[in-house]
Design a protein that fits this description.
Radius of gyration: 20 Å
Number of strands: 6
Strand content: 5-15%
Strand order of the largest sheet: 2-1-3-6
Largest sheet: 4 strands, mixed
Distance between the termini: 24 Å
Structural class: alpha/beta
Length: about 350
């Protein structure tokens, strides 16, 4: 049965479970009719710690890290140009170095989508296309509007494309189904947005596609097909069963707070909508693990999120968080009480990219 979630009065918004009638017989998402929690917490933090607003702004270091990682991936592609695709050297390099590097680039594009690499919005758009090159397939131009929608319409059904669809949750609601999802989740994240709603094409989309195809063609012509295969394989591993890929699931799936039996009981179980992670893999991923902090203040770059956390620790210290992305993947697959249904959804709020009307 779907569950409605309401806000409990506290220093920050928290979600409470109460039973409601199902909209669909197979719908088991956590439905709420409240606003997302980050806006009100941001307002409370700014009131309590007004100095945090000074942390906003772009991070000049980002462009140098991106340049280094792009260079690393091209060098690895050259090194593997004569390696068989199924050789241990090719696969291990793709998984250990390539997947980590491309996950880093995924999250660089995430940072850049918030205009946090340069002061100029145009420079950020163009640089995201450059960061996209070692990924092998064009996606940076589409990622930005879909991702900003995720922030503006967190959990809104039909707008937040980070949410699994009911069909995904229904057909993958098993151990093997969840293992399949975790193995191929990069494909779900790539295809799902277009199935939910389509963006209007722009000149930036065209530039992204042309630049990527030109880079891939030059790579194949001067280095060989194995070089391009290395980059695409790295991207696949980056969104598969890889430690850094745990952040995809860790960020917004509900863990350990809810079971099927308690979904039908009116109680006061708190259900967090966003989880943070404060472990060492943040060093490789632009601190994306500090996800509550990021959603509260998306204009603060990765390098200053730890300072935000320390400054407003009174708001973050009691929030549930993950200690391991590897354990997140393991629990997601093996725990019967965790799965694709474990997401908070709401019916209203936010705007569709390219539209001017709010769904309220």
């Amino acid at each position: 049965m779907p569950t409605t979630i309401t806000v409990a009065p506290s220093q920050g918004p928290q979600l409470l479970l109460q039973p409601v009638q199902p909209q669909d017989s197979f719908d088991h998402f956590f439905w709420t009719y409240t606003e997302e929690p980050h806006k009100s917490r941001r307002q409370a933090i700014v009131k309590a710690h007004p100095q945090v607003t000074k942390l906003c702004g772009y991070e000049p270091l980002t462009k140098y890290i991106v340049l280094a990682v792009v260079t690393l991936q091209i060098l690895c592609a050259v090194w593997l140009r004569h390696s068989p695709l199924l050789s241990a050297r090719f696969l291990l390099t793709s998984y250990i170095i390539g997947a980590t590097a491309n996950q880093n680039l995924f999250l660089a594009i995430h940072e850049i989508s918030h205009n946090l690499a340069f002061k100029s919005p145009k420079a950020n758009r163009l640089f995201s296309v450059f960061a996209n090159l070692p990924i092998g397939l064009p996606y940076s131009a589409s990622f930005r509007p879909y991702h900003l929608m995720h922030h503006k319409s967190l959990g809104v059904d039909g707008l937040d494309t980070d949410l699994p669809t009911s069909l995904e949750a229904f057909f993958l609601d098993s151990l093997l189904g969840k293992a399949f999802f975790c193995t191929f989740q990069i494909l779900f994240y790539a295809i799902r947005p277009m199935m939910v709603y389509r963006l209007p094409l722009t000149s930036l989309h065209l530039f992204n596609v042309v630049a990527q195809l030109a880079f891939d063609a030059l790579l194949m012509h001067y280095i060989g097909a194995s070089a391009l295969a290395y980059l695409i394989t790295s991207s696949f591993f980056a969104g598969s069963l890889h430690p850094c890929a745990g952040h995809f699931i860790a960020e917004h799936y509900v863990f350990g707070q809810q079971t099927p039996s308690t979904r039908t009981i009116s109680n006061e179980l708190l259900v967090p909508e966003t989880y943070s992670y404060y472990g060492p893999l943040n060093l490789l991923t632009y601190n994306v693990g500090m996800h509550n902090e990021h959603h509260d203040f998306p204009a603060i770059p990765w390098s200053r999120l730890p300072l935000l956390h320390e400054t407003a620790k009174d708001f973050y210290i009691d929030l549930p968080h993950h200690t391991s992305w590897v354990l997140v993947i393991w629990q997601f697959i093996w725990d019967k009480e965790v799965g694709l249904w474990c997401r908070v959804k709401r019916e209203t709020g936010g705007k569709r990219a390219g539209c001017g009307k709010s769904r309220q």
